[in-house]
């Protein structure tokens, strides 16, 4: 009854407004579709169906006498600036010192959102600027979902309510979020009873739960979205090159004013080491956390405007959340907001927000990982054991918060973004958020064109389809299955990753030699990534194994162990295609493993089981695990090797190849002497019992073998004389 009364009050409060809003929304949705169609017709720039190679792009950088615009930085904002510029018929170049989306743009919460918490602050503080920031972001959210439908989709997010008074309070705030979105509201939010909330999100803590509110935001594959923007710019004629580092800025003296003006940059191809000059009428600094480095190149006395903040995320198995329902914790123990979201059939949780130093290789800390796990435990049922060992990957992204150098209060953080033009003409775009990259790019180009007196038309990126968006339909994957004989899961993945370009990847897929699937060899069994994606990644300017692991596929972000398993095959395929020597292949293996170890959380995961791991098991369990160990250690040597395991497996007619066995034992072989000692096994089982290690292949293998032996009534071969 209490829930019904509360729901009735909230419904009466907003019913009339929503009725009027609905009618207005239908009209505006029709107007929006017309606007998209008009935007597409306005782009009069030649479109190249075949991407130029990276070598061709580098040659164009060297040989072009002068570009209109040189954009430095290949993240979402920089790529957005390049796409905006080239579709205005400006001769455009884009350079990135690492890979496209290698920084913050690939390490987000994967949401396309206006910011519910920003709207709350805007209302509570009557802050019009913050309100307009949310309104702009909601407009951009709608546009991004429209122009890249294969990479993005609406996602329902549940806000659980544990106090009756909070129900109308949160409902009013979420309904305001819908109203601010106007015609671009994805789907109307709604209230759930306790039972319905638990039905939709059964992992939720039921104690004191009174109900929930569900609202909608967008979700996307951030690195692939960034890449789609850069590739679209390249197809429209922008000269885009990754692994092209700016050594210093070029300047000339303006004959009219006598002042120095930025007129390009000296660049270095990171792959070959060759240097060359790129001339341009204007240069845009879109380097995210590294904004100040480029500003210092322009003027050593430039004040620092970037105040970096680290945001850590973790990835857990998909069973921690429903397939299509996220969760928002609006008030964590320290006042931050935590999202708990399904993503790529896994569960992503984050983010933290803490000051950090600027680095190209941010590393997630154990403290941040445990903070997120603690907050997750607070919202999930006690029946769900949230284990440290279930963290499959973790990463840190640096959010470039900025202060406005033009403001009198230079210490105040700018809540949105800033566009600044230096005395020498360097245009800097900094701050902002993923969702508003397009609007930021538009504002940047508008300011650039005005300041540098460039001849260009208006912005044409609203409604402009991104790479793969054209030709995509929700049922495209069925054609891939029927036409090529791909597994359904693989076909769905290709359609959701490459959109209309998925057929190009499917054509490259090798025959499996099996009855089904006919084509499409997986890189690793539990993920739908296939070998032909590595071949296609090279066409998409992938230069290193890390590019494939982290940004062309998302394997490194989803499961570091699976990524490590797939790595040798990826290096082999890339090496063959790019002509790598054996030394180069080994360098790529080492670099990628360092990346997984440091930046993707493999280090913190592996540190859960070390030589110093305490053995804290009851005596009864120690005896049980010793007996299990001795089923493999027949000679009571105190250790087991791959030979010991192989012999026991053969006795129950199980075959595992030697390389796989080496990998399984190596995970537990702490002193790396080629064998697993009893003490190491007990350390493993202690860590498993505490939840610090999960999915240990050796622990599961030995338990399964023990159970099989007991079921069959077998005794050890050496004691029975070999009989069965």
TrEMBL record:
Pfam families: DAO (PF01266), DAO_C (PF16901), EF-hand_7 (PF13499). Its cofactor is FAD. Its main location: mitochondrion. It is an enzyme of class 1 (oxidoreductase). InterPro entries: DAO_C, DAO_C_sf, EF-hand-dom_pair, EF_Hand_1_Ca_BS, EF_hand_dom, FAD-dep_OxRdtase, FAD/NAD-bd_sf, G3P_DH_FAD-dep. One of its GO terms (molecular function) is glycerol-3-phosphate dehydrogenase (quinone) activity. One of its GO terms (cellular component) is mitochondrion. SUPFAM superfamilies: EF-hand, FAD-linked reductases, C-terminal domain, FAD/NAD(P)-binding domain. It is found in: Mitochondrion. Pathway: Polyol metabolism; glycerol degradation. Residues 620-655, 656-691 form the EF-hand domain. GO terms for biological process: glycerol-3-phosphate metabolic process. It catalyses: a quinone + sn-glycerol 3-phosphate = dihydroxyacetone phosphate + a quinol. CDD domains: EFh. Keywords: Calcium, FAD, Flavoprotein, Metal-binding, Mitochondrion, Oxidoreductase, Repeat, Transit peptide. It comes from the Eukaryota. Belongs to the FAD-dependent glycerol-3-phosphate dehydrogenase family. Calcium-responsive mitochondrial glycerol-3-phosphate dehydrogenase which seems to be a key component of the pancreatic beta-cell glucose-sensing device. This is Glycerol-3-phosphate dehydrogenase, mitochondrial. It comes from Scleropages formosus (Asian bonytongue).
């Amino acid at each position: 009854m209490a829930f019904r009364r509360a729901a009735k009050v909230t419904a009466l409060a907003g019913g009339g407004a929503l009725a009027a809003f609905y009618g207005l929304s239908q009209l505006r949705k029709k107007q929006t579709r017309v606007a998209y169609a008009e935007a597409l017709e306005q782009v009069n720039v030649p479109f190249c169906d075949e991407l130029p190679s990276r070598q061709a792009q580098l040659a164009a950088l060297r040989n072009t006498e002068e570009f209109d615009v040189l954009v430095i930085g290949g993240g979402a904002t920089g790529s957005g600036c390049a796409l905006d510029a080239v579709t205005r018929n400006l001769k455009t170049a884009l350079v990135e010192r690492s890979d496209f989306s290698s920084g913050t743009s690939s390490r987000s919460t994967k949401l396309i959102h206006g910011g519910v918490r920003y709207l709350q602050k805007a209302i509570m503080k009557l802050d019009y600027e913050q309100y307009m920031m949310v309104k702009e972001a909601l407009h951009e959210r709608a546009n991004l979902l429209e122009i890249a439908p294969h990479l993005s989709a609406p996602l329902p997010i549940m806000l659980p309510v544990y106090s009756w008074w909070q129900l109308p309070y949160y409902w009013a705030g979420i309904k305001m979020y819908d109203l601010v979105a106007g015609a671009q509201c994805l789907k109307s939010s709604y209230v759930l009873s306790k039972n319905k909330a638990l039905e939709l999100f059964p992992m939720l803590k039921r104690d004191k739960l009174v109900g929930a509110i569900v609202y909608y935001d967008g979700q996307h594959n951030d690195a692939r979205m960034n890449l789609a923007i850069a590739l679209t710019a390249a197809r429209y004629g922008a000269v885009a090159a990754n692994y092209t580092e700016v050594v210093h800025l070029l300047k000339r003296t303006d004959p009219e004013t006598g002042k120095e003006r930025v007129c390009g940059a000296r660049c270095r191809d990171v792959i070959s080491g060759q240097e060359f000059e790129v001339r341009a009428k204007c240069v845009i600094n879109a380097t995210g956390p590294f904004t100040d480095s480029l500003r210092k190149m322009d003027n050593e006395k430039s004040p620092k405007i970037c105040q970096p903040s680290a945001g850590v995320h973790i990835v857990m198995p998909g069973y921690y959340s429903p397939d299509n329902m996220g969760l928002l914790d609006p008030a964590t123990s320290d006042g931050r907001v935590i999202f708990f979201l399904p993503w790529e059939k896994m569960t992503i949780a984050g983010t933290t927000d803490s000051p950090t130093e600027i680095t190209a290789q941010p590393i997630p800390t154990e403290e941040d990982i445990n903070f997120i796990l603690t907050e997750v435990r607070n919202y999930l049922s006690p029946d769900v054991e949230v284990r440290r060992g279930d963290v499959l990957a973790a990463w840190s992204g640096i959010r470039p918060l900025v202060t406005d150098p033009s403001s009198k209060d230079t210490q105040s953080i700018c809540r949105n973004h800033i566009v600044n033009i230096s005395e020498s003409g360097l245009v800097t775009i900094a701050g902002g958020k993923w969702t508003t990259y397009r609007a930021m790019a538009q504002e940047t180009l508008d300011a650039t064109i005005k300041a540098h007196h460039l001849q260009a038309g208006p912005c044409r990126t609203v409604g402009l389809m991104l790479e793969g968006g054209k030709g995509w339909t929700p049922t495209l994957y069925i054609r891939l299955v029927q036409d090529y004989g791909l597994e359904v899961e693989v076909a769905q993945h290709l359609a959701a990753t490459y959109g209309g370009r998925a057929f190009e990847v499917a054509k490259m897929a090798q025959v499996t030699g099996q009855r089904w699937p006919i084509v499409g060899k997986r890189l690793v069994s539990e993920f739908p990534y296939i070998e032909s994606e590595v071949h296609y990644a090279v066409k998409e300017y992938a230069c290193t194994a890390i590019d494939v692991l982290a940004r062309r596929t998302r394997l490194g972000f989803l499961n570091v162990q699976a990524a490590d398993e797939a790595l040798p095959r990826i290096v082999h395929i890339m090496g063959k295609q790019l002509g790598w020597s054996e030394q180069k292949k080994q360098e790529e293996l080492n670099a990628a493993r360092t990346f997984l170890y440091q930046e993707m959380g493999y280090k913190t995961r592996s540190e859960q089981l070390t030589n110093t791991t305490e053995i804290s098991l009851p005596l009864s369990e120690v005896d049980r695990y010793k007996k299990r160990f001795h089923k493999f250690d027949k000679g009571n040597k105190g250790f087991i090797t791959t030979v010991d395991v192989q012999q026991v497996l053969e006795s129950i007619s199980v075959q595992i190849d030697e390389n796989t066995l080496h990998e399984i034992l190596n995970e537990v072989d702490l002193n790396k002497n080629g064998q697993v000692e009893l003490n190491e096994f007990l350390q493993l089982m202690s860590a498993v019992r505490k939840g610090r290690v999960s999915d240990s292949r050796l622990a599961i293998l030995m338990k399964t073998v023990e159970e099989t032996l007991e079921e069959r009534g077998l005794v050890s071969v050496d004691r029975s004389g070999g009989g069965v």
